[in-house]
Amino acid sequence: MTSFSQAAVVLAQQGGEDVVGTGEALAFWVLGPLALAGALGMVFVRNAVHSALWLVLTMLSLGVLYMVQSAPFLGFTQIIVYTGAVMMLFLFVLMMAGRDSADSMVEVLRGQRLLAALFGMGFAALLVGALARSLVNVQAQAPPDPYDPAAGGGAGGLGRLIFTDFLFAFELTAALLIVAALAGIVLAYRDKREGQKRSQRDLVEARFRGDYKRRSPYPGPGVFATGNSVATPALLPDGSIAPESLSELIESTNTARLIAEHDRVLGSQAEHDDARALLAEESDESEQEGERK
Amino acid sequence: MTPTYYLLLSALLFAIGAVGVLVRRNAIVVFMCIELMLNSVNLSLVTFARINGELDGQVMAFFVMVVAAAEVVVGLAIIMAIFRSRRSASVDDTNLLKY
């Protein structure tokens, strides 16, 4: 606490004229609550895409707050880099990966949410209390004149600082960006050779090696039969019905209902092709079984 | 109004971001909460630059932005790689080392 109050004294002594005007206060009281609302919305909305949009609101508000605080370059960088590039990247990945995975309400660790809320409130109270008690009576100094090259303000002054005092850090940044780009490529690269298309020969060999349940394709409906409707089962060479070709949907519906639907569509005068003409007596038995169930 | 209010706003945003990291289960949302914390620190850096009438704080905020951009690239690529192998972006499903 002593260091905080010392800092306050130093800051208070440095404070010259008060350059926080009414316009800035107005901007702060409009944009500050907006930024807070965006942050709260991001944490408490369950849908991940909505979270991203709330965060965009916060970042835009912060960008404008930078501009208000005589940091126009950072303000525009914030809007272009953060809301333009970073958040679009987030949305891109969300659409690919996490779109449909709304957060589950099940707590994996018992009491985690409550503890996290308590921690958050305590942390916020501590930070706000310390700042509010120590940094009283702080005055903003007039920023360096952005239009005067000698004063070194504005984007030009920022550039001069980056290329003189912070040159080494800036060059390290270049290395960092190159490594990050490489890492992105390496991590996101998927070897295409794994999913190479198999030729017909490979497929046949795999079939006869026993990788599939059946060597031949499944018989389609109506093969060797009187019609090509799904309701007509395929026949095996000996004239018996191929069980794999029976349509589950039609087999589970009883004949009377199929005929009734047929009549409803075509009128009762139409002659029906019996859907199960080939099944003969068997179909009646299965129908009775179905009714018994 | 004094510039201290900006610092209070930044403290609140940082706390909200920290709570989000602890509470949310979707890895991408957790990552967005980290971005929020970085942004709040940027706001405090810009405010300190303002209070001192110098540009050093703005340079720091600029570097934070660069590092955050690089971090987003790597982090999202890792999340994509995990999603590809586990078909999930939830931090609870990444438990291969647990048992």
From TrEMBL, chain A:
One of its GO terms (molecular function) is NADH dehydrogenase (quinone) (non-electrogenic) activity. Residues 281-293 have a biased composition (Acidic residues). It is found in: Cell membrane. InterPro entries: NADH_UbQ/plastoQ_OxRdtase_su6 (IPR001457), Nuo/plastoQ_OxRdtase_6_NuoJ (IPR042106). Residues 264-293 are annotated as: Disordered. Keywords: Cell membrane, Membrane, NAD, Oxidoreductase, Quinone, Transmembrane, Transmembrane helix. It is an enzyme of class 7 (translocase). Its main location: membrane. It comes from the Bacteria. Pfam families: Oxidored_q3. It catalyses: a quinone + NADH + 5 H(+)(in) = a quinol + NAD(+) + 4 H(+)(out). It is a multi-pass membrane protein. Its EC number is 7.1.1.-. The chain crosses the membrane at residues 26-45, 52-69, 75-94, 114-136, 166-189. Residues 264-276 have a biased composition (Basic and acidic residues). NDH-1 shuttles electrons from NADH, via FMN and iron-sulfur (Fe-S) centers, to quinones in the respiratory chain. Couples the redox reaction to proton translocation (for every two electrons transferred, four hydrogen ions are translocated across the cytoplasmic membrane), and thus conserves the redox energy in a proton gradient. Belongs to the complex I subunit 6 family. NCBIfam families: PRK06638.1-5. This is NADH-quinone oxidoreductase subunit J. It comes from Haloechinothrix salitolerans.
TrEMBL record, chain B:
The chain crosses the membrane at residues 6-23, 28-49, 61-83. It is a multi-pass membrane protein. It comes from the Bacteria. Keywords: Cell membrane, Membrane, NAD, Oxidoreductase, Quinone, Translocase, Transmembrane, Transmembrane helix, Transport. Its EC number is 7.1.1.-. InterPro entries: NADH_UbQ_OxRdtase_chain4L/K (IPR001133), NUOK/Mnh_C1-like (IPR039428). The keyword Transmembrane helix applies. It is found in: Cell membrane; Membrane. The keyword Cell cycle does not apply. It is an enzyme of class 7 (translocase). NDH-1 shuttles electrons from NADH, via FMN and iron-sulfur (Fe-S) centers, to quinones in the respiratory chain. The immediate electron acceptor for the enzyme in this species is believed to be a menaquinone. Couples the redox reaction to proton translocation (for every two electrons transferred, four hydrogen ions are translocated across the cytoplasmic membrane), and thus conserves the redox energy in a proton gradient. PANTHER family: NADH DEHYDROGENASE SUBUNIT 4L-RELATED, NADH-UBIQUINONE OXIDOREDUCTASE SUBUNIT ND4L. NCBIfam families: PRK05715.1-2 (NF004320), PRK05715.1-3 (NF004321), PRK05715.1-5 (NF004323). NDH-1 is composed of 14 different subunits. Subunits NuoA, H, J, K, L, M, N constitute the membrane sector of the complex. HAMAP family: NDH1_NuoK. This is NADH-quinone oxidoreductase subunit K. It comes from Haloechinothrix salitolerans. The gene is nuoK.
